[in-house]
Design goal:
This protein has 227 residues and is mainly beta. It has one helix and 18 strands.
């Protein structure tokens, strides 16, 4: 389960089911493709009166967007806030068609009322119509409830959709669904990956390949300079 200790860049990256990549407070750039079938996690300090972008990942020049996660616009300072995106994953245990196949977890140090924008891939929509979806919030004692008021729904390029809700003041797990009344009550999946999951070494291998290629290039460059 890799955790970044500084800013990093790779070419292609695939996070497999059961694996987690924790960016911490750092920046990750991807030059090729990024596939998230596991968990992407990032922590940021979120002041009041701004829009904080979580897990919006691009290439090193900033010219290409590779992944969209969550945007938070709070009324006041939320301070250290952690966002997790569970990619290509069912959010409930009862009915696999309950929700869009992308789930979200938001944990602020200081909860504030905020406007939230959630992104998901067209391939994760799972037959839910983007023009009629709602955002649902998990409450431990009573299941799913509406998360704020829908302000906008739109699309970013052909492959991404987003939904924006305002007036959110409760934070835990979120799902997106067009079902009237929301996902099946009391049916949240457990998202914590097992530490022994076989997918984790594969994710580490992808990072190792990326950093090794970069290292070889640096060595070759240094050798040419000495010549």
């Amino acid at each position: 389960m890799p955790a970044l200790t500084s800013d990093a860049g790779v070419y292609n990256l695939e996070i497999q089911p059961g694996a987690t990549l924790d960016l911490g407070t750092h920046t990750l750039t991807v030059e090729g493709s990024l596939v998230n079938n596991g968990i992407l996690r990032q922590t940021q300090n979120v002041p009041g009166g701004i829009t904080a972008h979580f897990l919006n990942i691009g290439n090193a020049t900033g010219a290409q967007d590779k992944y969209y996660g969550v945007e938070i616009s709070p009324d006041g300072a939320m301070n250290n806030t952690t966002v997790e995106v569970f990619g290509n994953k069912e959010c409930t245990t009862t009915d696999p068609t309950d929700t869009v196949n992308r789930c979200f977890q938001i944990n602020p140090s200081t909860p504030q009322t905020a406007r939230l924008r959630f992104y998901y891939l067209n391939s994760e929509a799972d037959r839910h119509k983007p023009g009629s979806v709602q955002v649902w919030h998990w409450e431990n004692s009573s299941g799913w409830s509406n998360a704020g008021t829908v302000e906008q729904r739109s699309q970013v390029f052909p492959e991404y959709h987003w939904i924006e809700v305002s007036g959110v003041n409760a934070y835990s797990t979120y799902a997106i669904s067009e079902k009237v009344g929301g996902p099946t009550a009391i049916s949240l999946k457990q998202f914590s990956p097992g530490r022994g999951d076989a997918a984790a070494p594969i994710l580490v291998l992808l990072f190792a390949i990326g950093f090794t290629v970069a290292g070889i290039a640096m060595v070759r460059h240094a050798h040419r300079e000495r010549k």
